[in-house]
Specification:
single chain; mainly beta; four-stranded antiparallel β-sheet; 1 helix; globular
C-alpha cells in the first residue's frame, strides 16, 4: 500500500495586481507539500514595527475567493519564533465577497523593533471551504462526559 497521497483538490481563485504592482511576487507555495502560500509585503520602503505595536502591511493584490470558501491569513512560524512577530487576530479571514486590497495586520510581541522590508514574506494564506451553519434551536442539548466544563476543565 502506498503512503503517498495526491492532492487533487484545486480551487481556481482570481487575483488582481493593484496599481504600481507590476512585478512583486504573488502568493505562492514554497514547496510541493506546503499547505499555505507565502504572502509578500508590498512596500516602497522599510516599515519598522516597535514592540507592542501593530502595523497594517499592504500586499499589492486583491482576490476573489469563490463562494463557499474563505482565504485564511496565518502567521509565519519563523517570524513568530525568531522575532515575536505574528498576526494579532491569529487567523485573518478574507470573505468571498471582499474585493479590496489584502492587507496583513502584524504585531510585534518581541522586545526589539522589527523591520518589514519590501518583498518580505510576512504571512501564509490558505484557501479553505467554509460550510454554512444552519441553527436548529432546541430545548435541550445532548449530554457528554465533559458537559459544561469550561477552560482548563480537562486538566491540560
Amino acid at each position: 500500500m502506498s503512503t503517498t497521497s495526491t492532492n487533487t483538490s484545486i480551487v481556481p481563485c482570481q487575483i488582481k495586481r493593484l496599481a504600481g504592482n507590476a512585478d512583486s511576487p504573488l502568493p505562492a507555495y514554497q514547496s510541493e507539500h506546503a499547505a499555505g502560500m507565502d504572502v509578500h509585503a508590498f512596500l516602497s520602503e522599510n516599515v519598522t514595527i516597535e514592540p507592542g505595536k501593530i502595523v497594517l502591511v499592504p500586499t499589492g493584490f486583491a482576490i476573489a475567493v469563490p463562494e463557499g470558501y474563505e482565504a485564511q491569513l496565518r502567521p509565519r512560524s519563523g517570524l513568530a519564533c525568531k522575532f515575536g512577530v505574528t498576526l494579532p487576530n491569529c487567523t485573518g479571514t478574507i470573505d468571498a465577497d471582499y474585493r479590496g486590497e489584502v492587507k496583513v495586520a502584524l504585531i510585534n510581541l518581541g522586545e526589539s523593533p522589527f523591520t518589514v522590508e519590501p518583498g518580505m514574506r510576512i504571512c501564509q494564506m490558505i484557501v479553505k471551504e467554509v460550510p454554512k451553519c444552519v441553527w436548529q434551536e432546541v430545548d435541550e442539548l445532548s449530554d457528554t462526559v465533559r458537559g459544561s466544563g469550561g477552560f482548563g476543565h480537562t486538566g491540560h
